[in-house]
Amino acid sequence: MAMRIGVIGCGNISDTYFRNGPLLKDIDYVACADLVPAAAAAKAAEFGLEALEIPALLARGDIDAVLNLTVPAAHGEVSLQVLEAGKHVFTEKPLALSLGEARAVLDLAAVKGLRAGAAPDTFLGPAQQEARAQIDAGAIGEVVTGLASVLSLGMEDWHPNPGFFYRKGGGPVLDMGPYYIASLVNLLGPVASVQATGRIGRRERLVTAEGPMQGRTIPVETFTTLNALLSFASGAEIAFLASWDVAAADLRPIELHGTGGSLRISDPNDFGGVIARAGTDGAFAGTATAARPFGADNRLWLGEYPFSCYRGLGLAEMARSIASGVPHRCSGEFALHVLEVMLAIESAAAAHRPVAIASRPERPAPLSPAEAAGFLAEAVPQDA
Q1: Domain boundaries, position 14
Q2: Domain finish residue from 118, 145, 175
Q3: Would you say residue 367 lies in a domain?
């Protein structure tokens, strides 16, 4: 039986979760709430849900878990409210904006006997899982070094209300970094220490996206460029570049180099993609994942871009894991480690010193194509 889900937060990202809902066997979105009641009413009308006030949603006995899609600054507070109400919680990234608040969420979940999970769940997609399988099989030997990069001109040209991206707690690492750090930790294990440099490219940003902020200038309070060196407990040394000050770039999202070859990994904000491996001869050969479960382009990211975007898979996997009594893959402990690494990057850049990472989560269990197919409500082609 599908777990009944209430959603708190009806902003841009909620559309993708709601549209993906019918694809997933293990979850059923039944109600939504927002600080702006009109926003909840609009989503409820569009997707056949019940619009509620937040207290009423939390009080509903027939809602088993809550998907927390509020703004990042509210993630921790809302998750604590959900757990206090006796419901499991799954949060959009990041888990919280401070380690103290994140640990409070995990501690309360443990006391209540509830689950806490967090996005991103893209590392459960077939591209990241294919890369994991190749690394685990020793296809490129021991990973020695690599580069991950997420580079653009920022958020103000597409997001209707981008101010929070540039406040404390925002910036390219806390916004986009979860996809990249989660991918790397899934592939390589936990990070042991971080070094970084950073700067603010422009002190003000002009909003050009359509919406209520168009034409207004917003102040910048956080680093918009961060260059980090991640030292993994496994011995891998990975450079991570994150910037909203780049007009054009031609770097691959992730490239890893080992003692026996190299691996090019597709965008970790996407569930699918092509994974390309080269041996010591330097010739790359690609493995496509579009035919695998959750690999096909479904054009649901903001309703227009051709990505495989199946947000909600992590929540469905958590629901099934609860029913089976096994650990879930997008766990709070995993998300706390990702948050600790991201905050350490900012701290290292601000203080000009290395920062040690205390948490050491286990890598999530691999997700095979056959197991992934079991989450889909409709059959999809299996990889040949």
Answers
A1: 3-118
A2: 118
A3: no
Report the candidate in 120, 76, 116, 123 with the shortest Cα–Cα distance to residue 100: 76
3-state secondary structure 282-305: CCEEEEECCCCCCCCCCCCECCCE
Same domain (yes/no): 69, 11: yes
- Kindly report the CATH number assigned to the domain that includes residue 62: 3.40.50.720
Beta bridge partners of 24: 376
Query: Where a domain ends, among 118, 145, 162?
Result: 118
On whether residue 165 sits in a domain, the answer given is: yes
358, part of any domain: no
DSSP 340: H
Token pair for 49 = 């849900």
Residue with tokens 């608040």: 101
Residue 279, both tokens: 């041996």
285 with 143, same domain: the answer is: yes
Q: Report phi then psi at 71, rounded to 5.
A: -65, 155
The sign of the dihedral angle between the CA atoms of 261, 264, 269, 274 is negative
> Cα separations (Å) of 239 from 32, 183, 232, 257?
40, 14, 11, 12
Chain centroid, CA 213 distance in Å:
26
- 255 and 152 in a common domain: yes
- Whole-angstrom distance, CA of residue 292 vs CA of residue 310: 13
- Degrees to nearest 5, angle at CA 12 with 11 and 17: 95
pLDDT tens, the chain, 384 aa long: 899 999 999 998 999 999 999 999 999 999 999 999 999 999 999 999 999 999 999 999 999 999 999 999 999 999 999 999 999 999 999 999 999 999 999 999 999 999 999 999 999 999 999 999 999 999 999 999 999 999 999 999 988 888 889 998 889 999 999 999 999 999 999 999 999 999 999 999 999 999 889 999 999 999 999 999 999 999 999 999 999 999 999 999 999 999 999 999 999 999 999 999 999 898 999 999 999 999 998 865 545 556 789 999 999 999 999 999 999 999 999 999 999 999 999 999 999 999 999 999 999 999 999 999 999 986 443 432
Q: What CATH number should be reported for the domain holding residue 288?
A: 3.30.360.10
